[in-house]
Amino acid sequence: MNKFFYIDDNPPSLSEGIISYLNSVNSINVVLSEAKPWMEQIDMLQSEEYDGLLLDWKLGSNVKYDAEALASHIRTLISQRILQKDFPILLCSATKEFKSIFAHDQLSHNLFLSIHTKDEIANGATQIAIEMNDLAEAFKRIQSTNFKKEDLLLPPEKIQIDLRLEGEISALLENKIPHNLVQFLLLEVINKPEPLINQYILAARLGIDLDKSEDWENLLNNYLYKFKYNGVLSNGWQRWWAKGLEQWWESEISISSLRSRSAKQRVKLLTEKTGLKGLIHAEKDKFCFETEFWTACVATNRPLNPIDGLIIIPKTPMLPWQEEQYISPHGLLDDGLEFLKNNNLRLNPLEYKRWEKIREISKK
Amino acid sequence: MGKNKRNQQKVAKNSHSDLLWRDILEFKNHLSKYMAAYIINLSGLESAVNAVKTSSTGNWQYKVEKIIFRDLFLNNSGKSENSSLEMTIKMSGVYHNNTTPICDFLNEYCLEFLVKQQTEEQTIKNAYRFERHIYTHGDDTPEFIHPVYHLQYGGDKLTNDEDFETGDVLFCDAPRILHPPMDIILGIDFILANYYSFHLCEEYKQLLNDNHYQQIIKNAKDRFWKPYFLGLAANFIGTNQYSFHGINHLSVDKTFAQNLLAYKKEN
């Protein structure tokens, strides 16, 4: 079992909650370690055995340094090979506004693989523990002696990876800093559409309403597993190959292109071919016109046709092989700006005029 | 020295394949510089770049679905509210490297676009398809004689809707009109020219005035329209040899030339 130190300045009684949540699912072993004075802390991190760190954002007044300083120093020790092994460092905080404050601190973004509020950990401990475990596993796999470039994404035979993505991965592997590769994988491959898509985009492309479809799990397990992503980080993050979906559709459902059909037609064909009766087609949201869905709103995760969405600017600039991301008018009206801010996303300035118009219409 | 020169020529010749993907990439960069407010998913062009680059040697192919244009200028009074256009293109061909006789350089070609306008009650649509005749059943003469590269209005994109209403218009297969093939570059340039006002759309005007953009369009015309129009013209030089004497010993494959006018089995 992968062992994480949770470094916090609170007395053990206050930190127990978070640790018991994370340990309750038996995928990782989180051990509390009270923050120590700088030199002592560094010594401890150099001598102990562990697979990852979870740091509290504000380590407190006693130790006179914060999580960013500690993480930054650890990254330096690893790149200078003073620490022999690379491992994931995660950040958490009890401060509710922490994410939006941290979003402005561009300098620290490269230090942590994920950041969570303690509320998020309390409410989603199972998923977060699985992700932490998978991050630790990813570092181990990449650092194992027989690891090859081909072992990273493991695409199905018929899928050709974009040459520029392949080149980026080769360069990161040559740099031999596992953290950079894992961060790239998480930020640019797992969390942005194409070549992989998440389950919301997958459902949107199939025209399916996730909330209403009882047979979704059956469809996933009996059919869509054929093009599921199996590479590094695939246990913590469920993803599918976008091209795999199109290939599967053409070979098993209908020779005519998936994209040019309405959600209703897509689900009708799916039901005919699979016999699954509990698949319900998605309806368009308010202020939308099209049911030929292809993406999902970043805020509501509801199916969306790009033409109805508003283009957003992602955290990091779009790379050539990636697809644009959109927020739906409905999602934007419904606290969308707050959502974008907390997730370090922005509305593309090209959309300001349209956004104003939508706001006007919504008031009527 | 002589050998060196030959090698250099060889390298220059092979670079035809590089020119195609580079032009698509540069073209995309220009669109995102000037027209990003109007074309909302330019990533499709990046996928075409990668597809061309990873095609098997001597060939190229790509398929890009639904590049979406919005805020079209559907008439001369300015932007039309809630209007959009979806373009889909599937193309594959061989690099012709200026070989003679000039022969057909595409294997597959279908460029479709659907123009839409949302009104309060409904969506009204219009569709066009540019294509290369699809050869089936041992290249039989098709039921209706037509040029191998043509434009056809309408099609099932328009009529397969359950709610389709024809009003007073008779809807049957539209005539296939001779039209030179357009790749993703010429196709998008065509759409921009027809749906964005040169007088009212400042961004489009800037794009057209960009020298590099003009060069990219010229390259694309050299690539696809030069062999097409030379082929077409070869039908009319009167020698029945399909060669332009005196012009770089240029000749055209007879079948290709005849098919451009009308595809028949005897050709």
Task: Give a description of the structure.
The complex is a heterodimer of chains A (364) and B (267). Chain A is an alpha/beta fold. Chain A contains 15 helices and 12 strands. In chain A, helix 1 crosses helix 5. The longest helix of chain A is centred in the middle third of the chain and has 26 residues, at 118-143. The model of chain A has no long low-confidence stretch (mean pLDDT 92). By secondary structure, chain B is of the alpha+beta class. Chain B has one domain (3-261). In chain B, 37% of the residues lie in helices and 22% in strands. Chain B has helices at 2-14, 16-34, 43-53, 156-159, 184-195, 202-209, 211-234, 254-261; strands spanning 59-70, 83-94, 106-118, 123-132, 149-153, 176-178, 243-244, 250-251. Mean pLDDT of chain B is 85; it is low at 5-14. Chain A binds chain B through residues 160, 162-164, 194, 257, 259-260, 289, 294, 306-307, 311, 318, 320-324, 350, and chain B through 36-37, 40-43, 46-47, 49-50, 53-54, 65-66, 68, 70, 82, 84, 86, 88, 118, 123, 157.
| SSE order of chain A | EHEHEHEHEHHHHEHHEHHEEEEHHEH
Low-confidence spans of chain B: 5-14
Could you give the distance between the termini of chain B?
47 Å
How many helices of chain A? The count is: 15
Q: What is the C-alpha radius of gyration of chain A, as a whole number of Å?
A: 22 Å
Helical proportion of chain A?
40-55%
Terminal CA distance of chain A reads 57 Å
Shape of chain B: globular
Tally the helices of chain B.
Answer: 8
How many strand units of chain B? 8
Q: What is the count of structural domains of chain B?
A: 1
Structural class of chain A: alpha/beta
Query: What spatial order of strands do you see in the largest sheet of chain A?
Result: 2-1-3-4-5
Radius of gyration of chain B: 20 Å
Average pLDDT figure of chain B? 85
Ordered list of secondary-structure elements with their pairings:
The complex is a heterodimer of chains A (364) and B (267).
Chain A: E1 2-8, H1 12-23, E2 28-34, H2 38-47, E3 52-56, H3 67-79, E4 89-93, H4 98-103, E5 115-117, H5 118-143, H6 150-153, H7 163-175, H8 178-190, E6 196-197, H9 199-206, H10 216-222, E7 240-241, H11 242-253, H12 263-274, E8 295-296, E9 303-304, E10 310-313, E11 326-327, H13 329-333, H14 336-342, E12 346-347, H15 352-363
Parallel strand pairs in A: 1-2, 1-3, 3-4, 4-5
Antiparallel strand pairs in A: 6-7, 8-9, 10-11, 10-12
Helix pairs in contact in A: 1-5
Chain B: H1 2-14, H2 16-34, H3 43-53, E1 59-70, E2 83-94, E3 106-118, E4 123-132, E5 149-153, H4 156-159, E6 176-178, H5 184-195, H6 202-209, H7 211-234, E7 243-244, E8 250-251, H8 254-261
Antiparallel strand pairs in B: 1-2, 2-3, 3-4, 4-5, 5-6, 7-8
Helix pairs in contact in B: 2-3, 2-6, 2-7, 7-8
